[in-house]
Amino acid sequence: MSNAVSRQSSSRKAVLYRMVMSTHICPYGLKAKDLLEREGYEVEDRWLKTREETDAFKAEHDVKTTPQTFIDGKRIGGYDDTRRFLGKTVRDPKAVTYRPVLAVFAIAALMALAASYANFGTVLTIRSGEWFIAFSMAILAMLKLQDIESFSTMFLNYDLLAKRFVRYGYIYPFAEAGAGILMIAGALNWISIPVALFIGTIGAISVFKAVYIDKRELKCACVGGGSNVPLGFVSLTENLMMIAMAIWMLFMSASMGHMG
């Protein structure tokens, strides 16, 4: 019994070597320390305060990076290795994921509901539905514009118009942003409606052909050129939302004109 308690006690102690310099504090070192402490470990926090100390440590232990975690005298490894040791998941930077798009739609929905409540005192209005699509368009365009070169390169893999007119890959994010912002404002419908209808239709046809006809496995450029979002249903949804919004606004404009 006492031996078991002793082993459990020693297993809850960890030694962490991390870079803490006047010009740089390793963020992964901070993450590793926080993770170990949250898992109940008593951390002996050893700082590598100079480049010379860091290089000497790496050479001594034959490692390429810091931080490095040691438990019971055994080197566990860096931050990711420590997560694995503790039974935590480790993100694969190459893995496909829908998280970026889901995050955009979730934030856009909350913004739309908040705007509706601020303007009408209730969250569930027709305007909140319109704002959801318009906010989504504006946010997605912003993500594309962060690195328009990467976006346009990825976009060329599947967009039918961009393949014929390369500059369209650079125009698209500005068109999407402009249409979305005008729809939020409810202004200049004669610009926003045809732009959204045009880019949405071309996009929907392009995605449908690439994914469902040609059966190609591609990454979607919908949230920017650096994403690992697979081209498919979510990408098609972005374009169909633009088409739906344009048709809805066209219908509403026609109805208002008829009533007038």
From TrEMBL:
Major place of residence: membrane
Domain Glutaredoxin: 20-76
Gene3D superfamilies: Glutaredoxin
Compartments (UniProt record): Membrane
Entries under PROSITE patterns matching the protein: GLUTAREDOXIN_2 (PS51354)
Bilayer-spanning residue ranges: 101-120, 126-145, 165-185, 191-212, 233-251
Name of the featured protein: Methylamine utilization protein MauE
Organism listed in the record: Pararhizobium capsulatum DSM 1112
